[in-house]
UniProtKB/TrEMBL annotation:
Cellular-component GO terms for this entry: mitochondrial intermembrane space
Family that this chain belongs to: Belongs to the CHCHD7 family.
Signal sequence bounds: none
Gene: 109418901
Organism: Aedes albopictus (Asian tiger mosquito)
SUPFAM superfamilies for the chain: Cysteine alpha-hairpin motif
InterPro entries: COX23, COX6B-like, Cys_alpha_HP_mot_SF
The name this protein goes by in its record: Coiled-coil-helix-coiled-coil-helix domain-containing protein 7
Main location: mitochondrion
Length: 84
């Protein structure tokens, strides 16, 4: 459980962020050992930024979807990437 109860609500990439920190801790803060985690975190941030931007343009609020809706949004995105 995160110290901040709203951490997951405010940061859809909390899991990826935690994995980056864990990798850095385990590898004596050698960034080169954690490049895959950094890339995954960046991809996550980019994805949710696009979602927020699109929702804002469509007039949907909140711009960042509720935690319960995020998995569905990711699944819908994956369908468009596979079929498109």
């Amino acid at each position: 459980m995160p110290k901040n109860p709203d951490a997951e609500k405010n940061n859809p990439c909390l899991k990826e962020q935690d994995l980056v920190h864990k990798c850095l801790n385990q590898n004596n803060y050698d960034n080169s050992q954690c490049e895959l985690y950094f890339t995954n975190y960046k991809n996550c941030k980019d994805f949710w930024y696009r979602v927020q931007r699109d929702r804002r343009a469509q007039g949907k609020y909140p711009y960042l979807p509720e935690v319960a809706d995020r998995e569905h949004i990711k699944q819908e995105y994956m369908k468009t990437k596979v079929s498109g």
